[in-house]
Specification:
The complex is a heterodimer of chains A (about 575) and B (about 170). With about 575 residues, chain A is mostly beta strands. Among the domains of chain A are: about 1-40; about 125-330, Beta Barrel (Outer membrane phospholipase (ompla), Chain C). Chain A contains five helices and 35 strands. Chain A has helices at about 1-25, 200, 205-210, 335-340, 435-440; strands spanning about 35, 40, 45-60, 75-85, 90-100, 110-125, 125-135, 135, 145, 145-150, 155, 155-165, 170-180, 185, 190-200, 210-225, 230, 235-240, 245-255, 260-270, 285-295, 295-305, 350-360, 375-390, 395-420, 425-435, 450-465, 465-475, 490-500, 505-515, 525-535, 540-545, 550-555, 555-560, 565-575. Chain A has a 24-stranded antiparallel beta barrel. A two-stranded antiparallel ribbon of chain A has the order 1-2. A two-stranded antiparallel sheet of chain A has the order 8-9. The two termini of chain A are about 30 Å apart. In chain B, strand 2 (about 30) and strand 3 form a beta hairpin. The longest helix of chain B is centred in the first third of the chain and has 14 residues, at about 1-15. The radius of gyration of chain B is 17 Å and the shape is globular. Classes of the chains: A mainly beta (about 575), B alpha/beta (about 170). Strand 3 of chain A pairs parallel with strand 1 (about 20) of chain B, so a sheet runs across the interface.
Amino acid sequence: MKKIFLATIIVAFSTLLSAQTDKTDSTKTKLDKKLSDGTKEVNWGTIHGNFGLDAQYYFNDSLIAAPVVPEKFRMNGFLNLVYTNGNFSAGLRYEAYLPKPLLGFDARYEGQGIPFRYASYKLGGLEVTAGTFYEQFGNGLVLRAYEERSLGFDNFIDGFRAKYTPIQGITLTGLVGKQRFFWSWGPGLIKGFNTDINFADLFPKLGEKKIKLMVGGSFVSKYQDNEDIVNPLDPNQILNLPLNVGAWSGRLGFGVGRFSMNAELAYKINDPNRTNGYIYKPGSAFYFSASYAQKGLGITVQAKRIENFDFRSDRNMTGQPLLMNFIPMLNKQHTYALAATIYPYAVQTNGELGLQADINFTTPKWVAKKYPTQVNINFSMVNALDTNITGDLYGYRTDVFGFGRQLYMDANIEISQKVSKKVKFNLMYMYLFIDKNLVQGFGSTPRPINSHIIVADVSYKFLPKHTIRLEAQGLITEQEMEHLDDRTNGSWVMGLAEYTFSPHFFVSVMDQWNVGNPTEDFQIHYITGIVGYNNGSTRITFGYGRQRAGIICIGGVCRQVPAANGFTLSIMSSF
Amino acid sequence: MRNVCVSLGIFFLLVSGAIAQNNLPAVAIQDMKGGTFNTSQITNNGKPIIISFWATWCKPCVAELTAIAENYEDWQTETGVKVIAISIDDARNVAKVEPFVNGKSWEYEVYCDPNGDFKRAMSVNTVPHTFLLDGEGNIVWQHNSYNPGDEDELLELTKKVSKGEKID
């Protein structure tokens, strides 16, 4: 099957290539370039791509509970190639996980091959893609196919897609296909239709008045064959499963002058699946954001309500694979290590209510200072839905504003200040509350944790191209005496020193120390050192260190990362 | 495995006549309010263009754009350059881009690429990734990552490009 597809694509390439070449030759389009001797150069199109390789050599380290890697060496690598000629383009990606994926990536990626390959062309307002593609409808509540390589997340769709723009301002998209499941496809067939209408494009008078109005709607359905699943409430009964599950969403975007708002409401019919315990209650998702922006000041307020909205092309799947949609997290995406990685939030696709407010401002000029201060204040909270179990296959009952147990809260302020041409600093304070068990799926017994995080980040450019940056971080929290087996328990301190020599070199050393762990043996130093070289679009880093076990979350998806100790090599480039 | 090698071989053979990318692909992305924008509309009347891929959560990206912002007027006067900042923030943060840019008082043209379509089309691995285009829209230089002081190199290169000189 795979071979036939590849052969078809290759034939398509060659046919289209020769067709393109013939056309260029015969009609002598303006794409031809005149050479100095007056002859024409054939338009061969352009090719570009990128490459990445992450390799690690592992050592045994029982203190941090690093899994033993008998083969010692593992690597993840990929190469993307994209060929474009006029309105035609084609691409592929080769991936290899040798001999197995790096620790922390799903073991089912083991192997090598070309999972991603496509060809597409544009003809007037029509764009057709055959093969693999990524897509997002609206905010992604009912459909988002995307890749987050650092997490090992990839749920592209393999099939056909057509996009049609009859007139500027209206876009129609239709697609059908199956999703990537490591080296094969998931069992469900996805059909999707989306439309976006932009009134400012349709009626230029609106655009002149700086009024933006956008509406959109999507319908997505999945089909999966019937199977025998035992009724969780009655072991003698087999569930009568819906084979086609449909979901729709409607959107409204509005902007006038400094104000903008965006809202999306999505609904899904009954979709008994493993993540919701095979209940028949329909799901819904609501997302809202409003913002105000003027020079020197920006304010965003966001809210969401998610109920029973885990949507996958396999009703029995859990974890990362075969997700069809994307529920955005509504909390600040932290980047300082202790704020981002010790207690990260994970989206609860089966029920949560969230709020966020975010303010950015630059101190105005009349505040007498040579360099303005930049401030970010952010607040977010997430609660579970308050549910009453009904005891039947409907699952539970809840109210629209049924605020249940608090899952997460984060209040933080970050200040950036340039002191002189040479010195800059960033300061951050954050209060963080998380229910670690409920959020990270360690069980249903609540485990609330309060913590305070402080960060100071100073950089000093002591010579025109030479900069030293120092980072000190602390996370202060109580020791939990009932969780003595937890290697993140208690307070942490962290220090980082980085030296950069623009534009090519950097070296950095970092130590994360679980100084407050109530288990003395776990008061471990996680030390890493990295040297790196940049040149143009190539970046090479080499490091040695201890990687802490934990959860890494990027872009709304999280994964468990086991501890590791060893050398790392990373090469990335694009052309 | 053989199958993979053969396909790769044929692909290379087919495209061996193709030259490396030197101008912008046409991709439908969004303006900061969610309206449509096609990257083929990126122009600067024959003057150089800097395209910077960034995200609100990316500290080095913000440091780079802030460093350029401090002298952006001088850069524009000297070279006529226009900076276009492409945010790759996804649905989680895309609504914050416009308030963020205003909060920072940046004067750039900013567009959003929430599902990475333009990022993929430009073969960008990670942010920050900065491209320099000459007056004809050809990509003449690119750089991944940002270290303090990199903006000085970028300014030198932009000056060269604005004078029509070649970059090695």
